[in-house]
Amino acid sequence: MASKSIDQTKNQTARLRLYLGFLCFALTAGILALTPTSAHAQDKSGVKPQVISLPSGPGSLEGLGETFEPNLSTGTSSYPVKFTAAPGRVGFQPEISLNYDGGNANGPWGMGWKLSIPSIQ
Description:
With about 120 residues, the protein is α+β, with helices and mostly antiparallel strands.
């Protein structure tokens, strides 16, 4: 008779563990079902992305446009970046430009860059 009560106790313990396991699973599944699944963060700052536009007028930037052409025989390319200088005496205005050439070596202005400064000899 004592062995029968021990078997009943083991069965009750096993059932209790099974019910508690199922209850934990059901609660976890319910909590996960109620949480939002959106992967995107909510925008709470009120700041919108801005589109940056290039300035116009003096000091403005321009794209490469049609002036960028590769040299098909060497595979290099060149591109001038011209700077405007204020006119001097008698309307003399120097032309200063920073030139890029893919075939140039490393220089003081960087790899492939060369500064052309006019001079009077």
